[in-house]
Design brief:
The chain is mostly beta strands. Helices cover 7% and strands 50% of the residues. It has a 20-stranded antiparallel beta sheet that branches. It has a five-stranded mixed beta sheet with strand order 8-13-14-11-12. The chain has a four-stranded antiparallel beta sheet with strand order 3-2-5-6, with no helix packed on it. The termini are far apart.
Length: 783
């Protein structure tokens, strides 16, 4: 009896205590409040956004609360217990913002939450913030501070450096290019809503400068239905704005480094709550503008200049318009080898880019959002040979190419009853003009015969392998008969090509995100129509699942997507005319005779995210991509000219890991690790190669066994503080050309042998003294 009474008293006490904890604050409990507003990246208020506030795990703060923003975008939570909370803000068409905040008993500053479109995410907090992986695809968020503390890997391609150094699964390539998840250039850039799927490395175009970027997000998993065309990596970018900057601001920076590299940049921003302007200009001049085939830069000078402007106008609290405009130009030499430099080779490239992109955003009845984008972009590329084409070795090359891209898209998003839905349409037209000229200028390059020692016979009178036996020579197994008509040393003519093409693409999609008994579900369907040198349509279902385990906070995710891949547009007309086996395969068809066609892919991703000790966040993912009709680029010699090639199929699989440490007293760090295995299956179609066919199963030169990046930066507090950053990067992979045997290496030039570190006993090869035989017991190459 006594035990029953004690149990009843204890139960009553616990119940009352719980009711008091969940009920109104007692007079002795200090009160706190949290208030602020929700806007998009252009400063447009977002009325009707859902704002949820939950108690942090393990704390005794208030239970869950939620509200919606007022017509002016504002929200408020009053009479809160001080302590840690988790804030979640959602609005249709935007990536949800999640952050950990610390609410104090004293009056706090207003909290502004900035939501970003198309998966872009910015975290703003009172005390600290930690990104949580709640989407089905792996994401990497990069803010302005991190962009400032990263060093560029190549001149004039800072955007490529930012992506390579922050995103797991991205391997560095030459001349400012990169390979996402084992593929050459399957990347879409979404700049303030404008899709750019053209190649952005220095070899093809002038890319957006990092000084214009406010933040970006790179998505490496199965893309949402709104993204198409190139989707191994989707990079959503928000540019800097002058809105809400009544005092004006600007910055100037200048630098000088090795290889006589000088850089300079100027930015200016000014505005008010209803209008703003941001301007930026940067330039570079370097004696090593492109990556060089020699350790010593030879004939490698270049310069570039980029201008960018953004205008913003808030027509009303619910409507905003924006105009982006950019002009860029680059002029640079194609770096030489010592052999080419001794011959006086002087090949150069010129690139010009113009981009204009207006857009409009409008909220509708507090819960809907409409976004429209229109754009015009034009790239012009000129590649000039030496004044005397015969000075070029082993072939002379010239090109005049333009790529003009114009399009429009519209999207409507809506949030209701726990669903965030989005539908949209897009039309893009691309006009291509291509003029190309080439000819073999070295009689030893494609000789049908080889001498007794294995060196190609440089006799220009030899045109057929049947002549070899009578001349006391052996047949060259690597001889390509298709190149003989274009070997000017053997009486051939220059290969001249001039044609144009037009590509029209249509797309429509619908997608939704909702919560189902603790399981986050994303589902979408995309339909593409491709009408260019070839024609095809693609239906692409995509689905993702996300689940957070309550006790540990572990996030589990899985996604499947069907993807419709379109051919690379750069040099597509010529590459589509060379037929099976490419330029060296013996079949030179007419334009459109063997066009590259869209590919089709199945992609599966599974991942896990976990918050560890002291707020360290680890995110890991496994991916597998199986593609019918995979694409790659074939590079011509050591030039920046590349032509698309299509393979019968490909497989890509690998692991990605991203570890992030929260900011502590100004210090911040992260690390990425990744492994990718890529295989291409022939036969191949298109391209422009002066070599034999690929192997039936080929590992591309950007196969990515291991990449690792570690970054640490520090920023002092105060208005006049300083900052510093340190980044360590490692890439492994295959070289573009491998020498199969030591005997084959003995037939290379002295320059080539010296570059690979060839040695015989204690004697190394030099440019002046190549090795032609070796009887020493030890021999090999140091590289």
């Amino acid at each position: 009896m006594i035990r029953a009474v004690l149990c009843a008293i204890l139960w009553t006490a616990v119940k009352v205590s719980a009711q008091q904890a969940d009920g109104p604050l007692s007079p002795a409990t200090p009160e706190a409040s949290l208030f602020g507003d929700v806007r998009d990246a252009s400063g447009l208020v977002l009325p009707g956004a859902t704002v949820g506030l939950t108690a942090a795990r393990g704390s005794d703060t208030d239970p869950d609360r939620s509200t919606v923003t007022a017509p002016d975008g504002s929200f408020e939570f009053s009479r809160l217990r001080p302590g840690p909370y988790h804030l979640v803000v959602q609005f249709p068409g935007f990536t949800p913002s999640e952050q950990d905040i610390l609410v104090g008993s004293r009056a706090s500053e207003p909290l502004r939450v900035v939501l970003a479109l198309s998966g872009l995410e910015e975290h703003v907090s009172v005390a600290a913030s930690t990104a949580r992986p709640l989407n089905a695809a792996m994401q990497t968020n990069v803010d302005r501070r991190l962009i400032e503390t990263l060093a560029a890997q190549s001149v004039g391609t800072g955007l490529s450096s930012v992506i390579t150094m922050t995103t797991p699964g991205v391997a560095a390539d030459s001349n400012g290019g990169f390979h996402p998840l084992g593929e050459h250039a399957e990347t879409s850039f979404i700049v303030d809503g404008q899709p750019i799927t053209d190649q952005q490395s220095r070899a093809f175009s002038n890319q957006l400068s990092p000084i214009t970027i406010a933040s970006l997000e790179a998505v490496t998993g199965v893309p949402a239905a709104e993204f198409g065309d190139k989707t191994s990596l989707v990079v959503a970018i928000t540019t800097r704005s002058g809105l809400d900057n009544p005092h004006r601001s600007g910055a100037a920076s200048f630098g000088y480094g090795s290889f006589a590299t000088g850089t300079g940049a100027l930015t200016y921003g000014a505005g008010a709550p209803r209008a703003g302007i941001f301007l930026a200009i940067d330039a570079a001049n370097s004696g090593r503008f492109l990556d060089t085939p020699e350790h010593t830069p030879l004939h490698a000078h270049g310069r570039s200049v980029n201008l960018f402007g953004r205008l913003d106008r808030r027509v009303s609290p619910a409507t905003a318009v924006q105009l982006n405009a950019a002009v860029a130009r680059a002029v640079f030499q194609a770096p030489n080898t010592f052999d080419q430099d001794a011959n006086g080779q002087d090949q150069q490239q010129r690139l010009g880019t113009v981009n204009v992109a207006p857009s409009l955003r409008r909220t509708v009845r507090g819960r809907g959002f409409v976004e429209t984008n229109v754009w015009f972009r034009r790239d012009v590329a000129y590649y000039d040979p030496s004044a005397d084409p015969l000075d070029d070795r082993p072939a002379t090359l010239s090109q005049r190419r333009t790529l003009t891209n114009a399009g429009a898209k519209a999207a409507w998003s809506y949030a209701a009853r726990g669903h965030v839905a989005k539908v949209g349409v897009q039309e893009t037209t691309t006009w291509l003009t291509e003029a190309f000229r080439t000819g073999v200028t070295d009689a030893a390059f494609n000789s049908p015969c080889v001498e007794v020692g294995g060196d190609p016979a440089a006799d220009p009178s030899l045109r057929d392998p049947r002549q070899c036996d009578g001349a006391g020579l052996a047949v060259n197994s690597g001889f390509l008969p298709a190149l003989v008509p274009y070997d000017v040393t053997r009486g051939g003519a220059f290969f001249d090509f001039q044609a144009d093409g037009r590509i029209v693409q249509w797309a429509a999609y619908a997608q939704d995100r909702w919560q189902l008994r603790g399981l986050g579900v994303t589902a979408g369907l995309r339909f593409d129509v491709y009408d260019g040198l070839s024609r095809a349509t693609g239906v692409q279902p995509r689905v993702g699942l996300v689940h957070r385990l309550g006790r540990t906070g572990t996030v589990l995710r899985a996604a499947y997507g069907r993807v419709f891949l379109t051919p690379y547009a750069e040099n597509l007309v010529l590459a589509s005319s060379t037929g099976s086996g490419g330029f060296g395969g013996g079949l030179l068809g007419s334009v459109g005779g063997a066009p590259l066609t869209p590919g089709r892919r199945h992609q599966v991703d599974v991942g896990v995210g976990q918050r560890l000790w002291k707020g360290i966040q680890i995110d890991a993912e496994y991916f597998r991509k199986m593609t019918d009709g995979a694409f790659d680029f074939g590079v011509v010699f050591n030039t920046p000219l590349a032509f698309p090639v299509q393979f019968r199929a490909s497989t890509h699989q690998g692991m990605l890991v991203h570890v992030t440490a929260p900011e502590y007293r100004g210090w911040r760090a992260y690390a990425t690790l990744s492994h990718t295995r890529a295989r291409l299956f022939g036969p191949e179609l298109g391209g422009l190669r002066f070599s034999a066919d690929y192997a039936p199963v080929a590992a591309p030169d950007h196969d990515q066994p291991f990449q690792q990046t570690t970054h640490l930066d520090y920023r002092s507090t105060g208005a006049h503080g300083w900052w510093g950053g340190l980044t360590w990067r490692y890439d492994s992979g295959l070289v573009a050309v491998a020498v199969p045997t030591y005997a084959a290496a003995l037939r290379l030039t002295g320059d080539e042998q010296a570059a690979m570190g060839l040695f015989c006993g204690g004697t190394p090869a030099t440019r002046e003294a190549p090795l032609r035989s070796c009887v020493a017991p030890t021999f090999g190459a140091t590289r």
